[in-house]
Amino acid sequence: MLLGVVKELMNRFKSRYARYIAAALSTALIAGAVLLYRNLPAKLQPETKPHSLTKKEVKPQREKTIPEKLEELDRTYPIGEPPEGSARTYWGAGKGKNLIVVQLESFQNFVLNASVQGHQVAPVMKQLSKESLYFPYIFQQIGVGNTSDAEFAASTSIYPIGFSAMSTTYADRKLPSLAKLLGRNHYVTATFHVNDVTFWNRDQMYPALGFHAYYDKPYFSKVKFSRFGASDEELFRVGIRKMKTMRKLDKRFYAQFVTVTSHSPYKIKEADKRLHLPDDFADGRLGDYLTAVNYTDYALGTFIDKLKRSGLWDTSVVVIYGDHFGLHKRYHRPATVSKALGIPYHKHISTYNVPLIIHLPGQREGKRIERTGGQIDILPTVANVMGIDLKQEKFTAFGHDLANVGHNIVGSRYYMPAGSFFNDDIVFVAGKNGFEDGKAYDLRTMLPVQNVERYRPDFEFIQKRMGLSDRYVKRLPARPGVKLESQSKQEPAGAKVPPKAETGPGAKPGEKQAGNDGPAGLRAKPSSNGKAGKDGSKERIKQPEADHPAR
Length: 551
Known about the structure:
- By secondary structure, the protein is of the alpha/beta class.
- Helix content is 30%, strand content 15%.
- The chain has a domain at 89-393: Alkaline Phosphatase, subunit A (3-Layer(aba) Sandwich), CATH 3.40.720.
- It has 15 helices and 20 strands.
- Helix 9 (232-248) runs parallel beside helix 10 (284-310).
- The longest helix is centred in the middle third of the chain and has 27 residues, at 284-310.
- The protein is globular and about 130 Å long.
- Residues 479-551 are annotated as: Disordered.
């Protein structure tokens, strides 16, 4: 177009300056076109690449904390917690009262409904379940730490990591715990166990959990009742005496008891047996287990009687739960157990199902709460009863208050394949390929579930939740002056090594006998503090750490 204009001008102006004039006009027209292009309306302008920010211009975003990630994750699962500020069931029912927690060794839930020739195996626990809050669908969540892992999970609401005992791996950390929560409320906290406190590194775990005192082997009778020392009756006898002393000092207390008599190999002297099996009871292993848990149930009954006579029963919240299975699925076929006792028994559901009972002060009528849970749910449930607001305390719990959720799910590992879980409907047993070849069983009918695809979100949710728990415990700050050192495997003094078939290197990791209390693994350097008590034993009292509220 421009060339046509130039030719027209040259035809009109036939002079020697025509070409100069045409060149000038061409330049002017081109300049005008450039200016017009640069000032096009926004809608007509071509797309341009966005400006790339330099490192100095980019502001780093704060990484979300694990509690924030946990809260965000929980919003993706229909847990159904009551809105903040609304009324909570059993809130503060035990506020200001003492707290007594009893962990029962190798105590499965099925024994509450078992009997032999009309004689109940666990009559005390059965009756107590009718007079208390009873949770029949609680499942173990232990790893290689077995009994000590159960203590840890119930005390912290943190998942055991599985192939390493929590007491020997994280005893050097500042652990959030139920004992510390109660310590802030001016409770005296103590724990009782007839074995030597260095076993499972408890001499370091108990201070890490915030207990003010522990009472171990030197405090109890030297009469050896089992491979671990004194009997459960002796455990409770000493405990009653110490709790009475704390009451005389006008102190509210939290006392934890860890029983041992029903520990494998479940051998009770004939003179001490309370349950006598018929001569034709064919299964010797099962018979030994039943007589052992029956004795522990009897000892618990003597404890409750003394609590009532002393007046402590009506001024205390009493929590009782099982730590892990006693009948190994390798040696006890479900059909054999069912036939011997006349009850349904499932290799996953019944084996890993443990009882949880919470008795409230002055409670006369019981309530059965069929919410599925695990040992990590004990702390939040008890905290609600004791009137402790975990959110207000800024306490990170990986369990839930079982009395105040509409749905729940708990993960399981080590004794079950990674990715296995229990929810309100099923137990899901992960396969070699995780969810894809996993199997599910109905918790109530114990029958296989065909349509498992609908539980894929549960599988993905619990994997993320347990992963957050693992990251959380690993990031907890170290306790000053505590150093863990590696030592070889060790059994307690005088104990017989269990048969190789149960615990030897040939056993599969997921099938090691929970009842043997596992290897000692890592151990902290033993504490040398202590003074002589009236009975000649060393007073195993730990001074609170510098940051402990009781100091």
